[in-house]
From TrEMBL, chain B:
Keywords: Cell membrane, Membrane, Transmembrane, Transmembrane helix, Transport. Belongs to the ABC-2 integral membrane protein family. Pfam families: ABC2_membrane (PF01061). The keyword Transmembrane helix applies. The keyword Transmembrane helix applies. This is Transport permease protein.
Length: 261, 263
């Protein structure tokens, strides 16, 4: 068990430091949460809705978390390829999946920091109140949300192993998820067909659960149903990651083009 | 004269093609069509949700303008950095060609491309959000958009000139993008900003263009619109001149310290 933790921690440590040195990531972690929160605050300013603080914290926090995944985990494989290190870490005696998990956790850690920054902004800069009405349920929802973002990061990162345009494609994944998963507005504003797609994406449930537990749960049965749905989706994502890795592993060994860009 | 103009267009086209040339058609369409559409849909739905309104015309117009930000910042703004990256910066600087034309040429096709992005945004608005264009003076609207694109590319050239001394432009470009998202009045009225921040809005391109286009869309053609359009043109020209001035100063500095190609 200890060597596994060692691999994950070493990968996390190196990767988080390396990523934080990148200008784009510095923007996503340090500046985007403040600017996004400010944008939402200014839009809400005229109407003074209830739970404005909670709305801004969850919305900008999740948007930032997603951006940090898109601009890091999704492009990590491509960056390793560009630096010429992908083949080395792929064939190293440590399991590539563990190394990549360390990458993802490092990105998530920095992404979570941006959520904290956004909360600080909302409370101290804009003077809004942020309450957590159901702390125990919030903790549950928060933990599952982190797990769900870890699962989806692994899945996207692996899929992008096959693409040589990952860096371009990752730029195109930001807004569709903002829209489909209702990170800022409820998915009820979307056409019915799109709502079905939204329900197979774990951030949809994560956003719903975080919002509910912060603003106050209306119906505990629905809340637990959402919690179970999110747990099932996380499990499916992890299973998909395992199956996909086997397929991708076989393909890159046959094609021999892992390091070609 | 024909020779100079020919070179100007050739260089402009080459510079534009160099930016996207390495992408295949599918990825190019994703970047230039699908992504802007998604951005527009996101911000329009956000405005619709927050303002509880079905009439999203003003927000659609504002956000259609913002689609051109990618051209001005990530197209024109990164041009000097790209030249350094491709190893051609020293050749561009050392060539005896008219520097001003070389500089402005980098933005020329992006003005047209930015215009096409705005038109795409409006088309999506008509198709998905029932944008009403019946009261619109189409000719005046397009002149306003064209001048706003000129102003936006002026800002891009100004930021691009900083590429001579800044090695990684990503932080600066992303920051500038959000500054435009927040301050140009596309997603909330400029009047909502604290007074001292409202001044920033009017130092930026596109703010006046959006205001003018919203008035044109409402069919309210007043002398104020011409004032806004005129000031938008002046804003663009000032950015372009400051950018060129910066380019000359920074070029001299870079030559002196032999850091032109260092990144």
């Amino acid at each position: 068990m200890l060597p596994i933790i060692n691999v994950i921690f070493s990968s996390l440590n190196v990767h988080a430091r390396q990523n934080f040195a990148r200008a784009t990531f510095q923007f996503v972690i340090l500046f985007q949460p403040i600017l996004l929160s400010f944008l939402l605050y200014m839009m809400l300013r005229g109407s003074n809705p209830v739970h404005a603080g909670e709305y801004i914290v969850v919305s900008s926090g999740l948007m930032n978390l997603w951006s940090s995944i898109i601009f890091s985990s999704a492009g990590d494989i491509d960056r390793e390829r560009y630096m010429g290190t992908l083949e080395c870490i792929y064939v190293s005696p440590s399991d590539f999946r563990l190394i990549f998990l360390g990458h993802v956790l490092g990105n998530l850690l920095l992404g979570l920091f941006s959520m904290v920054l956004s909360s600080i902004c909302v409370v101290f800069l804009f003077g809004l109140q942020v309450h957590i009405e159901n702390p125990a349920e919030f903790l549950c929802a928060f933990t599952l949300s982190i797990l769900s973002f870890t699962a989806i990061s692994l899945l996207i990162g692996l899929i992008f192993t096959l693409s040589r345009s990952a860096r371009i494609l990752m730029n195109c994944l930001e807004y569709p998820i903002y829209i489909l998963c209702g990170l800022v507005f409820p998915i009820s504003v979307l056409p019915k067909a799109l709502q079905f797609i939204a329900y197979v994406l774990s951030p949809t449930w994560a956003a719903q659960l975080l919002r509910e537990s912060m603003a106050g749960i209306q119906n505990i049965r629905i809340f637990y149903f959402d919690l179970i749905a999110l747990s099932i989706l996380i499990l499916v994502y992890f299973l998909l990651t395992i199956v996909l890795f086997k397929k991708i592993d076989r393909r890159v060994r046959i094609d021999g083009t892992l390091g070609v860009h | 004269m024909t020779g100079i103009m020919g070179r100007f267009f050739r260089q402009s086209l080459l510079s534009y093609k160099a930016l996207y040339g390495y992408l295949d058609t599918k990825v190019y369409l994703l970047v230039k069509v699908v992504n802007p559409i998604m951005q527009l849909i996101f911000f329009t739905l956000l405005c619709k949700y927050i303002y509880h309104t079905d009439d999203v015309t003003p927000w659609l117009i504002g956000n259609s303008f913002l689609l051109s930000v990618y051209n001005s910042l990530f197209g024109v703004g990164i041009v000097m950095n790209n030249e350094r990256h491709f190893g051609t910066l020293k050749l561009v600087i050392a060539s005896p060609a008219n520097k001003f034309l070389v500089f402005v040429g980098r933005a020329f096709f992006h003005i047209l491309d930015g215009l096409s992005s705005v038109i795409l945004g409006l088309l999506i608005g008509v198709l998905l959000f029932h944008l009403n264009v019946t009261n619109m003076n189409i000719l005046l609207f397009f002149i306003t958009v064209l001048i706003s694109m000129f102003a936006a590319m002026g800002m891009g050239l100004f930021i691009g000139s900083l590429g001579l001394v800044v090695s990684d432009m990503n932080l600066l470009l992303n920051l500038s993008m959000y500054v435009l998202f927040i301050f140009c009045g596309a997603n909330f009225p400029v009047e909502r900003l604290p007074f001292f921040l409202q001044n920033i809005s009017y130092l930026l391109p596109v703010t006046r263009g959006i205001e003018a286009c919203r008035l044109i869309a409402e069919g309210r053609i007043t002398p104020h619109i011409y004032h806004l359009i005129g000031m938008e043109f002046v804003t663009g020209a000032v950015y372009m001149c400051i950018g060129f001035l910066f380019l000359i100063i920074l070029e001299k500095l870079a030559k002196k310290s032999a850091t032109l190609d260092v990144y």
